[in-house]
């Protein structure tokens, strides 16, 4: 039996959440050929922002990484939906973009986004490694500490 994304996440001691309801007029994922574009996800569960505020002020680096991991779990929920839960359909993570709501002077933005990158690598091994951009921003939807989006290659 093929492993599901939900089971792989559970093996990491985590829980795959329901796909968050979009906070705008967009879809959680869109497919173009074998590329799956996952819309940006903030660190929320059940419509509530888990980490509201700025990394470097309200939150330290380690908490920022947890916020990024929460974003990655939301992305994985969308990925699971797109591939019917079947991990064997995931070829690799191609790209990730991470945005961190930062206090002035906070410069460890890439280390925050590692919270999402490290989860993808733990789940997909070398196929979880990806090109990435990490950007510090003044604000995010819902005053979330982190938002992450990604692109995956999938097979039929």
Automatic annotation (TrEMBL):
Annotated Gene3D superfamilies: RutC-like
| Ranges where the Endoribonuclease L-PSP/chorismate mutase-like domain occurs | 9-146
Q: Which SUPFAM superfamilies match?
A: YjgF-like
The source's domain of life comes to Bacteria
Q: Name one Pfam family in it.
A: YjgF_endoribonc
Q: What is this protein called?
A: Enamine deaminase RidA (YjgF/YER057c/UK114 family)
- State the organism's lineage: Bacteria, Pseudomonadati, Pseudomonadota, Gammaproteobacteria, Oceanospirillales
């Amino acid at each position: 039996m093929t492993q599901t994304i939900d089971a792989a996440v559970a093996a990491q001691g985590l829980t795959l959440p329901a796909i968050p309801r979009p906070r705008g007029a967009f879809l959680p994922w869109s497919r173009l050929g074998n590329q799956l574009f996952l819309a940006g996800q903030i660190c929320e569960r059940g419509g509530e922002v888990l980490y509201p505020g700025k990394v470097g002020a309200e939150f330290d680096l380690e908490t920022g990484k947890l916020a990024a991991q929460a974003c990655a779990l939301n992305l994985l929920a969308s990925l699971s939906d797109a591939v019917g839960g079947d991990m064997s359909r995931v070829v690799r993570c191609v790209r990730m973009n991470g945005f961190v709501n930062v206090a002035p002077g906070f410069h460890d933005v890439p280390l925050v986004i590692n919270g999402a990158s490290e989860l993808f690598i733990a789940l997909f091994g070398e196929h979880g490694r990806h090109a990435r951009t990490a950007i510090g921003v003044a604000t995010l939807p819902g005053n979330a500490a982190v938002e992450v989006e990604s692109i995956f290659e999938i097979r039929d």
